[in-house]
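Appendix C: a fully annotated inverse folding record. The material below is reproduced so that readers can follow the format used throughout the book. The structure is listed first as tokens, followed by the designed sequence.
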């Protein structure tokens, strides 16, 4: 939704293979279908990713590096605000992990 969906729509309009990295399978698949229909680009795909979980970030990065021949652009725009103080299963604060640590780790893992 929001900025991420707009960026994905623009990339798909430019005929780019576009990976939507989403926490929710249902919302992500709905966005994929909407973007494909609006752009005519069938190369829009969904991959599940929760930047609030470093295990999820690592699994996503492994899959992208294994499945994609190259990665030209990475847009980190996922984030949360207003969550109550929560500690993740990895013993990290949830908002900080989701907004900073997860995207930082993802970027570094995808650099190759």
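Designed amino acids, in order:
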């Amino acid at each position: 939704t929001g900025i991420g969906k707009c960026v994905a729509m623009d990339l798909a309009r430019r005929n780019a293979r576009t990976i939507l990295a989403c926490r929710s399978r249902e919302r992500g698949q709905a966005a994929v279908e909407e973007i494909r229909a609006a752009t005519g680009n069938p190369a829009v795909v969904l991959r599940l990713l929760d930047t609030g979980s470093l295990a999820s970030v690592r699994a996503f990065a492994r899959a992208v590096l294994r499945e994609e021949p190259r990665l030209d652009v990475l847009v980190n725009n996922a984030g949360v605000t207003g969550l109550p103080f929560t500690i993740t299963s990895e013993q990290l604060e949830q908002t900080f992990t989701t907004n900073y640590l997860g995207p930082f780790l993802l970027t570094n893992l995808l650099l190759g």
